[in-house]
Each structure stands twice: as structure tokens, then as C-alpha cells.
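Subject: sequence -> C-alpha cells, single chain

Hey, anyone have a minute? Need the predicted structure for the following. Not urgent.
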Amino acid sequence: MYTRDGPGIGWCVPLVLSILMLSACSSAPTSNFNLRVKDQQVPVVVAIGPFDVSGVTHKGAPVSNNLEASIQEMFHAPLKNAGIFKEVKILKLDKPKEGPPDAETVLALARDQQADLLIVGEVKEFEAAIGFPMPKSQYDVTLRFLTQLYNVHNRRLVWSRKESAQVTRNEWRTGEKLKEIVERYVMPSITAGTVSPLANHIQTAYVNSQGQSNTAAAEEAAMTLFGGAELARIDADLTPPPTRMPLQQHAYAVIIGVENYRDLPMVDYATRDVEWVKKYLITSLGYQEQNVVMLVNDRVTRSQLEARFERWLPTQVKNQTDAEVFVYYAGHGAPDPNTNQAFLVPYDGDPAFLETTGYPITKLYKILSELPAKHVTVVLDTCFSGSGGRSVIAKGTRPMLITVNDPVVTKNNMVVFTAAGGNQISSAYREKRHGLFTYYYLKGLQGQADKDQDGMVDVEELDTYLKANVQTVARRLNVEQTPQLLPGLDLMGGRAKSPLIQIK
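Reply:
Had a minute. Here:
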């Protein structure tokens, strides 16, 4: 099947696979394209999962009733016929009555069907304009498609690609013509631009996972894709502890993680960070799942932050003076050099236009300070210096010293844990596949911070534990990072001894 260019692993002569995309018994159109692959076997089972095509409508009606199945076969046929994977299968899935199936359901089903990798996709944009017949009609169709690849074992998103197609055709106007254009021209163009890079990424990561990587970044990508066993050991070490915390009726959390930004560098492990914080909240801290709002990646827009912080939280807390509130953020922070203010940076944020695309920290503190809750805990695994790590800055601007302290933080019900000082960066802890600060924050809650061994971890104990461990590991990584507690212990009074978790 392959042409080798020499011993070992090398590029083959481009392999032309004239693949019949749909079976001969199907009434759907057929399509051929060239799939460029390496001469490298990868012993994994790849599952083709659901594709959300609900947005492909014209005048309120679906363009095609079998478009999803057609796209699945467009991915399945070339990947299977390339012969580089142990098996390629289309996932058998009972669709919910309304909306696309949730990610956890699909990943669980993929595990049940012995898959290692899962491919899913979504139509992000669809536009179709049909001109007046003269005598033929001009069809202008635009479609933007997102493909995602997941490691089924660790449930992590390991690769994604956005592909767009624009097609203009002059055709005799019929009721099925738009469907035919989408299936015969538009989607084959999308899949042709996606499948080869997808296969090559898997092959390259597999080679690197066998100890043949040339860079740390390549090794990291390989371990993300094929590091299920190692991640399982790391996760077992971080298992949420059994506690004496009762189920809390009035505990509300907004937790946020942005790992993959639209236009900014990736924030390593932010997705894992926020997922593990959620596990601790529900498993060990007594929060009910319906009261935990988790926003990840492209869901973290400025409008969503405003909705959750400014409307959802106040509505939930109302006048409940026994309420517990928890806010967590893992992602980029940024300084505004004009105002010396610090901002959280949403998925589509621009450090050059923070006033309109970012979310100011001072505003967050003010909103939280006005809640009549008993306790408000804020945990920020980000930084605001613009020096790198989990911070960004407008081009042409020098890194700067930013303080995130605020007078409202001295209010008696609020405690803020931040990852680093104003002129420092928040680092990733590659060895543990987490942000350095978040990893030790969770280890502290696990019981490692219980210095006096009384079965409780209080604010002062956790602060002391964080500073000691984060500083030590950061210096080993050749960076300076010292977690901060706001307000300081000297201004906190009795809050310093407030228990954060009660361990069995």
C-alpha cells in the first residue's frame, strides 16, 4: 500500500486514494480526493462520532436529512482505506430527542465501544443565497466547519481544525439542488482539507510518543494524545478526598478555563485545571452539580462572563446569608498600560482592546463583594504582568507591574487566592499536567496543607502551603512565582482560620 523512501520512518510518495465516499447503493453524490499519509502504522481504534449539522438550514428547514451520515462516511472512508489505524469505526449512538448529545455521553460510549480516539465536528456557520433564474440560478454557499479530536481515555481535546469552503454554482433550480451542492462540493472540500492533517497529526504524535521527539512541545503533544496511562497515574494521585462536608443547598460556583484561544497563545492545561476544580467542588466540597457553572474555551466570552457574574450569581444568592460562593479562573490575564488595571481575557479577547474585549478584575471584585453570601472564595490561576506564562500584553508594550489588590477585598466575607505576584508569571507544571498553582491548590485541599493534622485545612494553612511548594517548584523551573493571598493575613483577622475543607 505504501512507497518507502528509505529505512525507518519517512514520508511516502503522496498516496492517491481514489475513495468512493459513499456506497453504491446510496443516492448521495460521490467524491474523490487525495489523502497524503506517512508510512507509519498507529495501533489505535479511531471512532467517528456525531457531527452537529443543525445549523445547515435554508428558509427554516434542514438542507439535508442525511447530511450527518454523509459527513461521517466522508471521514470514515479515507481513514479506513489508508490502512494506518488498527480500526476506524462510526460510533453507534442513540440520538437525544432534542439537541446534540453531550460530550460526556459520547466519550463514555466511545470507551464502551473500545475506541482510543474520537472525532467529532460541528458546522459553525452556514449561509446560502440562491439567485433569480436567468435561466439558471446562481447558488452561493459558505460553510465553516470545526473538527475536534479527543483522547477517549483521558477525555481531553487533543487537536482541532477549522476549515471553510465557499462555492458558487450556476445550476438549474430544483428542490434538491442546494442539498446536492452541499454534499457534492462543499463538504468534500471541507473533509479534503481536514482528514490529511488529522491523520498526519496522529501519526506524528505516535512517533514522538515512542521517544523519537525532537522538542519538548512535540513530546508534550504526543503524551497528550497517547499518554492515557501516565495521566491515569497523575489523576489517581490527585483524587478528591472523602470529607465531612455536608451537601450544601446554597453553594454556587462559576469556574472558567480557557486553554485554546481564538487568536492568542494556548494556556497549557487550563481545561484539565477547571475540570479537576469541578470534581473537587462536587465530590469533596458539597456543591451540587446544578449549582456549578463551568465555562470552557470558546464558551468563555465577555458576554458570558457578564451574564454569569453580574446576573446569574446575584440571582442565585439573593438574600441567602448562609450562601457559599466560589469563583475560579484559569487562562490569560492582561494589563492595560493606560489605566494600570488588570483584566481577565476571554476566548476572543484582544490585549490591545481590553476595555471592550476583556473583563476587569476590579469589576469582578466589586460584584462579588456586594453579594450577601457568608463566604466568597476567588481562585485565579492567571497573571497580569504581560511577561508570558498565563498573561498576554498588547504588541509593542513592555511588561509591567500590576497589583490586583482592591479595597473591596477587605470585606469580611471574601478571600482571594492568586497564582503569582504582580510582576511574575503563572507557570504550567508539565510533570503533573496542570497549572503549577492549581495543582498545589488541589493538593492542599486534599489534605497536604493540614499542618496541624486536625482534619481541617484553613485559609492560613493553604496560603502557607501554596507559597512554600509553588515557590520551590517554580525555582526548579527557573522562574519566580509566589502565590498571593488577598487581603493579606495581617488584614484578614478571623478569616485566616476559616476552614476551607474538613477531611475525614
